[in-house]
């Protein structure tokens, strides 16, 4: 699950040139006040079913100084109708949401809603039903917002209309909306101008030495589009950073003013050096 340098080049993410202004940039709202200025996200993804979230939750709690956003695939919805309901409680509640909330009540809980294949376009046909259900769910289970995993194949115009409805509904409830772009970061040109979207995350699965250049590319993208929405999802397993490389990643995060870095759930690759650097970043050191 990562985007190669070929994918990133579609946005010209490089530290040597800025992106030509080709977007019709609307007036952009700032990030929702619920989001801290510096964010490290732990993304728990499992293929092992319900119970496999528990060890990931335990790991998150044990590393509380180094994360302030918790995300997990708490929902992969099928087609919805006005009579649809969502799991009550969410299937990840007992072994993800509840233990983290109990141990670390200030950590933001932002579940990921996965839209794969034709699943996305099905929801785009009924954005108000979708929004009503998921906002109610967020309020009931004390979620701070959602991140859409945009892996669908379909109409980008319909996706934009869907995000406007969903984001506005979440904002009315004081919740946030983010978008995770994988594998096609080209959708950023449709998402970035939307005031209904608080942030988006591009994916990077390259070597550690190339991460700073990708971060400067995100910086340039934010600068050219007069926003602070572009952030990075990282795969520590693939990056294979040593201590110097990890230090450079976070020093570049600060210099390039990229607010958030997400760590995909291969958490066995997050050793003490990663954790110390994350904690220092969150403290502004």
Overall strand count: 9
Share of helical residues: 25-40%
Number of helices: 11
Form type: globular
* Radius of gyration, taken over Cα atoms and rounded to an integer in Å: 18 Å
Which regions contain 5 or more consecutive residues with pLDDT less than 50? 1-31
Overall pLDDT level: 80
Query: Largest sheet, order of strands side by side?
Result: 3-2-1-9-8-7-6-5-4
**Helix/strand structural class:** alpha/beta
| Amount of beta strand | 15-25%
Assembly state: single chain
The CA-CA distance between the termini, in Å, is 31 Å
What is the ordering of alpha helices and beta strands?
HEHEHEEHHEHEHEHEHHEH
Please give the largest β-sheet.
Answer: 9 strands, parallel
How would you describe this protein?
The structure is a single chain. The chain is α/β, with parallel strands linked by helices and 285 residues long. The chain has eleven helices and nine strands. The protein has helices spanning 5-8, 53-62, 93-103, 119-124, 127-141, 156-172, 188-191, 211-224, 236-239, 243-256, 272-283; strands at residues 39-44, 69-72, 108-109, 112-117, 145-152, 176-181, 199-204, 230-234, 260-264. β7, α8 and β8 form a beta-alpha-beta unit. α2 runs parallel beside α3 (93-103), α5 packs parallel to α6 and α10 (243-256) runs parallel beside α11 (272-283). It is globular and about 55 Å long. The two termini are 31 Å apart.
């Amino acid at each position: 699950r990562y985007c190669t340098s070929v994918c990133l080049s579609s946005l010209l993410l490089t530290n040597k040139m800025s992106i030509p202004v080709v977007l019709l940039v609307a007036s952009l709202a700032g990030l929702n006040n619920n989001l801290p200025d510096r964010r490290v996200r732990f993304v728990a993804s499992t293929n092992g079913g319900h119970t496999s979230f528990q060890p990931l939750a335990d790991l998150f709690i044990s590393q509380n100084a180094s994360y302030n956003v918790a995300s997990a695939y708490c929902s992969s919805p099928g087609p919805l109708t006005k009579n649809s309901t969502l799991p009550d409680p969410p299937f990840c509640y007992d072994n993800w949401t509840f233990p983290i909330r109990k141990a670390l009540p200030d950590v933001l809980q932002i579940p990921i809603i996965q839209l794969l294949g034709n699943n996305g376009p099905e929801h785009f046909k009924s954005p108000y039903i979708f929004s009503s259900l998921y906002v109610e769910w967020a309020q009931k289970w004390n979620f701070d917002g959602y991140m859409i995993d945009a892996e669908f194949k379909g109409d980008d115009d319909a996706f934009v209309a869907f995000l406007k409805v969903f984001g506005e509904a979440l904002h009315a409830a004081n919740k946030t909306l983010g978008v995770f772009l994988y594998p096609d970061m080209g959708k950023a040109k449709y998402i970035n101008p939307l005031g209904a979207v608080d942030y988006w995350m591009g994916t990077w699965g390259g070597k550690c030495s190339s991460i700073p250049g990708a971060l400067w590319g995100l910086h340039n993208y934010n600068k050219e589009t007069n926003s602070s929405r572009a952030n990075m999802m990282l795969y520590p397993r693939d990056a294979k950073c040593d201590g110097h490389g990890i230090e450079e990643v976070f020093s570049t995060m600060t210099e390039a003013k990229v607010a958030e870095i997400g760590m995909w759930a291969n958490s066995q690759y997050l050793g003490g050096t990663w954790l110390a650097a994350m904690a220092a970043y969150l403290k502004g050191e």
